[in-house]
Amino acid sequence: MGAMLPAAAAPREQVETTITLAAAQVTEHYVDVVEPRSLFMHGLRGLGSVAGEPGSSRRRSLDAAMQAEATAIGFKPQADLLIAEIMRFRAGRERDAALAAALRGMMAGLDPHSRLVLPAEMQPPPASVGLELTVKGGALTVVRPLPGGPGERAGLQAGDVLVGIDGRPTTGLPLPEAVALLRGALGTSPVLKVERPGAPAPLTLRPVRGPVQAPPSLRWTLEGRVAVIKISAFDGNTRTNLQSALDAAASRAGGPLEGLVLDMRGNAGGLLDAAEQLGGMMLPAGTEIANLRGRTPANARRLVSRQGDVVSGLPIVMIVDSRTGAGAEIVAGALQDHGRALVVGQKTAGAGTIQTVLPLPEGQGALIVTTARVYRATGAALDGAGVAPDLVLDEESGLLTPRSGSGSRLDAQTESEVAGAVSAAPSGTDTALLAAIKLVGSVGKPATSKAAAP
Question: Structural domains in the chain?
Answer without folding.
Answer: 12-110 (no CATH), 121-211 (2.30.42.10), 224-443 (3.90.226.10)
